[in-house]
């Protein structure tokens, strides 16, 4: 009898042990495939959902909703929409930009200016504590192309970019929207039959049969795909097509502000963009532009368009350092300059602008970036291109360190690396104009040190070189065109290939003077063009037309695949 009772207790113990083990395994299984619901939304705080993602935890300041107006701080706008948003202390205003808009909002003033037009607002930009806030729901569609909606029931602000794909579907049943794509997950929201859900375009790998959605309350989660019907694509992704397919091949066409534009005929092989020097800053003109188009220039534009060339007219600051500084450091003068640029582009039906501002104070680095930041959207809004000329990194203060190549590369359509002069008029020793190794090293600096997208970089190369003269420890140089460089070398002088520089070199002596020439020719240009393909750059540019040989254009055409 005792043995039977003992056996029975033992069986009960084993049974309980097995139950505990099974329960533990079940808990572990559930925890593994259905993790606890971690709330993305934050209680007692207005949540922010941007394009089907809850970003509330990334906010630097609270989103504020007052009398139906949604306010977002400039720090958060910088984080999500405009990394270049700027408080202009001189005029007590916020300057903000998007792909195609430049807008200003004066603090506590119920007006804003967008691309030169004044717009009345219900609410103004304001300062709360030590933070600036913009009336986002008032300006979002006009400036950022974003729809803003406040969901009072869940205290959530939902922002949707109008230029992104939008797909709707209806729920076929009363349904729970899951935190994770598994039936074991908790619900983030519930929908009823017929409710409309937004289908979320996601890169995450979802289990078969699950779809990521956003509910009308702004909640983001997952439902079984089979519970969705009537899928409708309401909007496609807006893709801005580039003005030129394939490599860009730009030639600058220089003529002074006192000369007429050249009268070109026929087609230049291997070119798809011309950049005539039509415009320049007026010294002490506070943003005025000297135009040198005239009848000859209009004929030039017609010739270019007849040959399917884009015309990106050059605007030079003529190295007027103080004039440039005055303009770029004052918003009103920048605005005046930009309005003048836009008016000229529209008047002459230009396809873009090549901004060539050189010799800038190093301390004006940020101010020059501001000019580019505010000009680029204005041109893009009318379908025009902005390219900006810069020198090699790590050079002299007012010729190199005055450019923020990273910012310019982000906001302009193209950044043109003027890969010359490695050794120029101010050099204390003779040297090459553009050695292949130096050019390639600086391309790498643009890509790595300056973090410029390769597809934004146009490589500028010289159709000239210098003849250097050394006598009694003194040096001097003069420019010689690529087309005539070999004519300047006396007969019998040995010409050798420098494989490091990817150039031919000649040296000789006459009447006590030593002459040194690092030669730009078809071979050196071919190497530089090859770098465009090697580093997948946007294209190449050449300074300047009529310094080249005819053979050059065939090499350009074949290397860059430009007819």
Overall form: elongated
CATH architectural type of the largest domain: Alpha-Beta Barrel
Calculate the terminal CA-CA distance, rounded to whole Å.
105 Å
Computed over alpha carbons, the radius of gyration is: 32 Å
Residue windows where pLDDT falls under 50 for at least 5 positions: none
Helical stretch tally = 11
Q: What is the CATH third-level topology name of the largest domain?
A: TIM Barrel
Helix content: 25-40%
Relative strand content: 25-35%
Average pLDDT value?
Answer: 93
The CATH superfamily title of the largest domain: Glycosidases
Level-1 CATH class name of the largest domain: Alpha Beta
Number of DSSP strands? 35
Summarize the main sheet: 8 strands, parallel, barrel
Strand order of the largest sheet: 21-22-25-26-27-28-29-35
What is the strand and helix layout of this fold?
Layout: H1 2-33, E1 47-50, E2 53-54, E3 64-66, E4 69-73, H2 74-80, E5 86-88, E6 93-97, E7 102-106, E8 111-114, E9 117-120, E10 126-128, E11 131-135, H3 136-144, E12 146-151, E13 156-161, E14 166-171, E15 175-178, E16 187-191, E17 196-199, E18 210-214, E19 220-224, E20 228-235, E21 248-253, E22 273-276, E23 279-281, E24 289-291, H4 294-306, E25 310-316, H5 321-328, H6 331-347, E26 352-356, H7 365-381, E27 385-390, H8 405-411, E28 414-418, H9 436-449, E29 457-462, E30 464-471, E31 474-481, E32 495-498, E33 503-510, E34 513-519, H10 522-534, E35 539-543, H11 550-560
Parallel strand pairs: 1-13, 21-22, 21-35, 22-25, 23-25, 25-26, 26-27, 27-28, 28-29, 29-35
Antiparallel strand pairs: 1-2, 3-4, 4-11, 5-6, 6-7, 7-8, 8-9, 10-11, 12-13, 14-17, 14-20, 15-16, 17-18, 18-19, 23-24, 30-31, 30-34, 32-33, 33-34
Helix pairs in contact: 6-7, 10-11
